[in-house]
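Changelog-adjacent note: as of this version, every example in the card shows the full chain rather than a window. The one below runs 477 residues end to end.
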Amino acid sequence: MYSAVYNQEADNNMVDLRANYDVIVVGGGNAALCAAISAAEAGARTLILEGAPKAYRGGNSRHTRNFRCMHGEPMAVLTDSYSEQEYFEDLMKVTQGKTDENLAKLAIRSSEECYAWMVEHGVRFQPSLSGTLSLSRTNAFFMGGGKALVNAYYRTAQNLGVDVLYEAQVTHLEREGDRIVSIDVTYQGEQHRLSPRAVVVSSGGFQADVDWLADAWGPAAKNFLIRGTPYNRGVVLKDLIGQELESVGDPTQCHAVAIDGRAPKFDGGIVTRLDCVPFSVVVNKEGQRFYDEGEDVWPKRYAIWGRLVAAQPDQVGYVIIDSKSLELFMPSVFPPIKADTLEELAGKLDLPTVQLQETIDGFNQACTEGHFHPTELDGLATQGLTPPKSNWARPIDTPPYYGYTLRTGVTFTYLGLKVDESAQVQGRTGPIENLWAAGEIMAGSILGQGYLAGFGMTIGTVFGRIAGREAARYASN
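Full-length structure tokens:
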């Protein structure tokens, strides 16, 4: 069934689904927008199919605030330098080598030129935020956050003549041999079949499909919170993997962080993350510590805590701090639970009082004298304690005391489509000649595990631009 439907992006502009689009981009976040803009600038007639309503457009990009950028010298809001080698070493550390090195280095090298491109297309930046995510040397922060970036890109796309259809649910890409011949999309209860010359899929991971998460993780996943968009359910990913396109990544690997246990099930975003772990003692529901809270600087290690909490009883943890540390981190959207004594705090958190007191007493006794520096590795470590606290170890002894509950907050999953350096999707017998992928749907090629702050936006920007350019080139031939 074909029809002309109203385009909610611009008044009096009709999206004619009978039109012969050169490039259709599936998805509406950062990677999709970079692809659509690049395709349009290369002369392709381009359509974005965004599954979310306009108010929720942008996928997980709405919740971002920075991207990680290589640079050889100070530039704009970035201080000092951040070399390709250091960037790569940082990535190898968090992924423990589980990455496609060629794609990783391509993303890293290309990130430097992305900064100017982003500015040219409407993105504005601000100096790095202070606190435990102070990244003035490595990461550029968006003025107004991810929502402002998304809005800027949509304005640019509209000015370039890109058509946008919201609440357009892509259900199937029809493959014949090594080509995609059509796209099935549901819009306002009607089925449409489109036949573009080229397709870019940038529709995210499958994290909002909790049943799929549970298939991978087991029943524990039912207790996870999904800090990103509820619209990334992996429909396109599952459809393409089912058609024997090459997949990459482990379905149990994901960007999972520790977030406030009071966050909503979906779409809580970045404000629900807790940055206080380095200055705290973290215990499970039995009142026992289970990992080194001060292992490394927070931007490199914060993403491990979602998985750590997932492994605890009932998938819950508890942060305990005292008044000395309350102002050292970016606050959550929820205020901490406050108490004048540890006994009172244990009661409010429903923790075993005796065990919590023993844990804190043991930690305090293991703390040593030394210089405390909240924004860098200070070597202020415990002695004779298992697990140790390697940095920022100060006694929890100054009332009032504060606590937060921790839950696993999944941002995006790493199971995705295998691509080459041109972002072209690979089939079992070779590349799919008119299909490209960018963003979370292919990030598992580079992120085998772990995460670096801001790197997801780097992957989306770099490969979105490549995918859009390559799709337009194919469509013109």
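Structural remarks: The chain has two domains: 4-209+414-476, 257-409.
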